Amino acid sequence: MATQALPDGDSAGTIMGHPKGLFVLFFAEMWERFSYYGMRALLIFYLTKHWLFSDSESGIIYGAYTALVYITPVIGGYLADRYIGQRKAVLFGAVLLTLGHFFMAFEGEPAVGNVDNPVIYIFWLALALIIVGSGFLKANISVIVGQLYPRTDVRRDGAYTIFYMGINLGAAIGSLMCGYIGETYGWAYGFGLAGIGMLAGLIVFIWGKPLLLGRGEPPKAIAKAKEFGIYGVGIALVALCWIAIQYQDAVGVFLGTFGAALVCYVLSIATFQLPYGSYEASPKPALYSFGALSALLVVSMYFVSSGNQDWLLPATIGFGGVLSVMILQMIARTDHDRDRIVAAMFLITVSIIFWALFEQAGSSLNLFTDRHVDRGGVPASTFQSINAIYIILLAPVFATLWTVLGRKGIEPSTPMKFGLGVIQVGLGFLVLVWGAQSVGIDVPTPVIFIFLIYLLHTTGELCLSPVGLSAMNRLAPAQIASLIMGTWFFASATGNFAAGLIAAATGAEGVGDASGKTVVLDVYSTVGWTAVGIGVAVMVVSPFIKRLMHLETLTDSNVGDDLEGQSEAGLEAQEGGMHPTTRPHG
Fold first, then answer.
1. CB 423 within 8 Å of CB 535
2. Most buried in the list 60, 365, 372, 405, measured by CB within 10 Å?
3. pLDDT at 5 (0 to 100)
4. Listed residue (90, 196, 184, 210) closest to 143, CA to CA
């Protein structure tokens, strides 16, 4: 082990040429992912087998939980940036996560739903603590990695590669160990092991504080009263999530209504403010029409999200009208920034479809593996580790492939990669359906088809996720870069909630084992073919979307909008907690 002084004054020395603080963050995040994915591997089984929720109820609860996990980082990142700094935010998040994982070990007696078992409220609290804890920790720990290095340090990209390998190592080991122990010896032991893992991560982070070299501290001195006020906001957020996770429909209403408002707001900036310099200088008939149609869309989505299908037509009219006004403005006035935002919104929409299918892994696909696959006695939850293992093995291969193709001038465009990703996630389901039907509905599906679906889903993920954050960063004008990145993460949350709805559609309790398997395969066949069709359509329109990106006129404006670690982003599914911090190109 060599010890040397770093360019930025690291007197603590290095390991493998990197600051020792990198490895503090590596192990802290590895243990955090160990606990998160260990719990995630067991969650759907805990809901169905211990709390005796139906498959449909469990799928929606799971979807609401993962959706909230991808919303809270926006808040955690904001509070860290403005007030308490990344290190204290990570520490606070780690404490909440440790408590949440340990509270998961409180079982009580099995009960149907939330009837006759008050311990269910401790379970909801555990989920709320994990949701908010993830928001504070995952939003900020990646940022500290970048802060360990000078802006122009060539080791930065290698540092993120090491860091994200730690993420997937923790995810793989956590799913294997917590899943096996939880299903073999009892839920409390599996969740307790996840809690021990999180506690280990917390201890490593506290112990390694001196090695972080003062990175991630508050932007300016903050009074203790104000600091504790921020922690109070975090606790209030836990209370809010404790309520939200019990009323999953409310999460869907929020995602539908706020999502429509967010999209309309972004498109209004792209269509009017940027091309004309201000809303006041925009053509008033078009602006007022856009505003009225946006209001119709948002109100309609509130009712549609609440389950009132009578509002589908008004929602369609509002959406179609907004698009029509935008297209007419694109024809009437040329503006490259506007076109890039439209391209980004297209990619964001495609990503929702991808994640809605990809995230079946922890819910319906986990249940299918448990009930209908010849696993040779291996607990079903341990198969959740396959994706992380594939990522570790294949991410370097894909990175090399894109580089080689780029040198030859034949690398697929970003929208083409998105289309390939959606096609592969659809093909994964179709391969599983074919494998299950080829041996007969009454015969357990060979386990090789589970490995194949995860392989196709992982290769699809590597076509879409690593380029997604980078694409958002490249396409967004500097003045709304954070807004576009926030929209990307909000889309991830929407995709997770949609995944819960799809998982709910696979529920078929009480119809017999073979009939239940048929219901699941029918849903998988439908979503598989739909995904393939959408993926092909995306590939067909990809040349047009690429033209909207106007890559030929992109300039390195040195405005500080280069995403930290963007070349490695996406090595974990969705990078849901990675806060969209930026660094100057310098």
1. yes
2. 365
3. 41
4. 90
Per the listing, tokens 């699941």 go with: 520
In degrees and rounded to multiples of 5, residue 63 shows phi and psi of -65, -40
Output the pLDDT for position 564.
Answer: 43
| Residue, of 160 and 40, whose pLDDT is higher | 40
- CA distance linking residue 210 with residue 295, whole number of Å: 52
Residue 421 burial by Cβ neighbours in a 10 Å radius (0-12, 13-18, 19+): buried
Tell me if 93 sits within 8 A of 76, measured CB to CB.
yes
Asked if 98 contacts 136 with a C-beta cutoff of 8 angstroms, the reply is no
212-227 pLDDT tens trace: 888 888 878 888 888 9
Residue 206 DSSP SS3: helix
Closest by CA to 156, choosing from 482, 561, 470, 563, is 563
**First vs last Cα of the chain: how many Å apart?**
31
Residue 234 pLDDT exceeds 50: yes
The identity of residue 57, as a single letter, is E
Nearest residue to 363 (alpha-carbon basis) of 66, 161, 8, 2 = 66
Identify which of 533, 557, 406, 535 has the alpha carbon closest to the alpha carbon of residue 478.
Answer: 557
Tokens 């948002």 correspond to 298
pTM for this entry: 0.88
Q: Indicate if the pLDDT at residue 560 is higher than 50.
A: no
Tens of pLDDT along 94-137?
A: 999 999 999 998 877 766 555 567 888 999 999 999 999 998 98
- For residues 68 and 517, the answer to whether their CB atoms sit within 8 Å is no
Name the pairing type of β-strands 582-583 and 562-563: antiparallel
Residue with tokens 């993920």: 461
Q: 545 pLDDT exceeds 80?
A: yes
